[in-house]
């Protein structure tokens, strides 16, 4: 393994504190959006965000992820139809009473128009192993790695000025079929990306305060 000098510029502490505050303020404004506008978005913004996601750390640098960027209206329609089928089953049969009660505050149901309205859908796949000829090469800490990469993706899109919905119409096997993915890929997240509808509303949610989410020892 060859090494190179780390590219690192020390920033004055006062500036670091200011940067961390302003980053936090921007992050605290991120919201999951369910009302999307069909307004077009330059594709480079989204591909740059996917590149940022791909720069994430991963177990043994295996990068066990694959992103499919869907912009074709026919494919979006196919995904919507399949997702709504799963979601109808979920809301009408599979969901427990407790789960439905927890979902009440979001006013969601099995209808998922945003899967067609949003200009882009990003489907995040995880790879438990890579295929090398006839061999399977195991990947490590796959869920952690893909979770971190997905976090990078959401932050990059928010930072660029777009909104997202982290959607999980489980089970998501239909995405592997529709998008013709190889057998080592499993869909983890379906993320509509775009601008919010003009009158988009979000639920008023409380976030846990710092003291209840962090212990300093
Ligand atoms: C792993 C994961 C799965 C989620 N699945 C759904 C989903 O299927 N449908 C949905 O409307 N929201 C989904 N959400 C969004 C959450 O409801 C939302 O993040 C949460 O209510 C907090 O709201 P905020 O993102 O605006 O802070 C999901 C979020 C995560 C992290």
> What is the count of β-strands?
6
- Measured by DSSP, the beta-strand proportion falls in 15-25%
Given the structure, what is the number of helices?
8
Mean pLDDT: 97
Q: What integer value in Å does the Rg equal?
A: 19 Å
* Biggest sheet statistics: 4 strands, antiparallel
From the helix content, strand content and strand pairing, which structural class follows?
alpha+beta
Name the hetero compounds present. flavin mononucleotide
The level of helicity is: 40-55%
| CA-CA gap between termini | 37 Å
Low-pLDDT residue intervals, each spanning 5 or more residues: none
Shape: globular
Helix-strand pattern? HHEHHHEEEHEHEH
Strand order of the largest sheet: 1-2-6-5
Describe this protein's structure.
A hairpin with a 2-residue loop joins β3 and β4. With 217 residues, this protein is of the alpha+beta class. The model has no long low-confidence stretch (mean pLDDT 97). The chain is globular, with a radius of gyration of 19 Å. Helix content is 41%, strand content 16%. The strands form 2 sheets. A 4-stranded antiparallel sheet has the order 1-2-6-5. A two-stranded antiparallel sheet has the order 3-4. The longest helix has 22 residues. The structure holds flavin mononucleotide. The site of flavin mononucleotide has 10 residues, from loops.
Helices, strands, pairings?
Layout: H1 13-28, H2 43-54, E1 65-70, H3 73-94, H4 97-103, H5 114-117, E2 120-127, E3 129-132, E4 135-138, H6 142-160, E5 163-164, H7 173-178, E6 185-194, H8 210-213
Antiparallel strand pairs: 1-2, 2-6, 3-4, 5-6
Helix pairs in contact: 2-6
The protein binds flavin mononucleotide.
């Amino acid at each position: 393994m060859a090494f190179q000098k780390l590219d690192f510029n020390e920033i004055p502490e006062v500036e670091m504190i200011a940067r961390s505050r302003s980053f936090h303020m921007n992050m605290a404004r991120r919201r999951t959006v369910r009302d999307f506008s069909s307004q077009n978005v330059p594709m480079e913004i989204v591909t740059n965000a996917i590149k940022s996601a791909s720069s994430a750390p991963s177990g043994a640098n295996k990068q066990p992820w694959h992103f499919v960027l869907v912009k074709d209206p026919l494919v979006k329609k196919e995904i919507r139809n399949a997702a709504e089928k799963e979601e109808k089953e979920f809301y009408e049969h599979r969901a427990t009473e407790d789960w439905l009660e927890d979902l009440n505050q979001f006013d969601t149901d099995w209808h998922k128009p945003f899967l067609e309205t949003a200009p882009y859908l990003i489907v995040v796949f995880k790879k438990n192993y890579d295929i090398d000829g006839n061999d399977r090469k195991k990947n490590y800490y796959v869920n952690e790695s893909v979770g971190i990469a997905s976090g990078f993706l959401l932050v990059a899109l928010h930072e660029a000025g777009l909104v997202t919905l982290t959607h999980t119409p489980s089970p998501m096997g239909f995405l592997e079929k529709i998008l013709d993915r190889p057998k080592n890929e499993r869909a983890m997240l379906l993320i509509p990306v775009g601008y919010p509808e003009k009158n988009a509303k979000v639920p008023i949610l409380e976030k846990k305060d710092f003291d209840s989410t962090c212990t300093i020892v």
